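Hey Z.,

So I finally got round to the 2-phosphoglycolic acid thing we talked about over coffee. Here's the setup:
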Amino acid sequence: MRYFIGNWKMFGVPKSIGILNKINNFVQKDKKRQKYKVIVAPPFTLLDSFSKYSNNKPVSISSQNCYLKDGYSSNTGAISAFMIKALKTKYVIVGHSDNRKEGDSNLILKNKVIHALKNNLKVIFCIGENNKQKSANQTFSVLKKQLYESLSSKFNANNIIVAYEPIWSIGTGKIPQDNELIKTINYVKKILYSIFKTRKTIPVLYGGSVDSRSIKLFKDINEIDGFLIGGASKSSKNFIDIIKNYYR
Ligand code: PGA
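And the result:
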């Protein structure tokens, strides 16, 4: 099973549901659809309408984030996992580097994961090193810390997906080399095993400058369980071409 997850970031208005509609139509008719799962993460403002639309459709909807507290509280502008779940949204992205940059620590992210899982949301947990850390050969230690400090053996591994997104490759067109990527993905899987000690392996996705061209570079890397796609997910054609080219 492969995942193709579109992260729209700060993009989309109500009529953008047309993009989702086209992606759904493609997946519905695709003979290979059993091989993969498609998820779209629009901004909070579209979660309700998109989630309603997606009921009984192949494409599922994800939130891009949730607040560090659950339920209701007096935090202006905040949206809790509880509120997201009430929209029948199924997934939530936690720990995207955009949010880490804005101050989300490993501990804050742990709380977000706890609340998301408690509300039965599936978590797409993002990790990744920046350019400086990569140059200093700190990739493994950075990833290990991000995983150990935010995930716990008490969490339900069945509801966790990890997305490895090197920050230096997000939106830059820079893609890690094959051997480097395979080593890192295997390392992440090893750490996840050491945390969860489960035989059912947690999917580990890759994210960063995935588009309809670069996807061809990943076709033969069996270790990658799917992709988190930013820029190229905002056009139905680009997003669909990624899936088509992956299976071509
Ligand atoms: P990108 O973004 O595909 O535009 O590089 C990926 C992400 O931030 O999830």
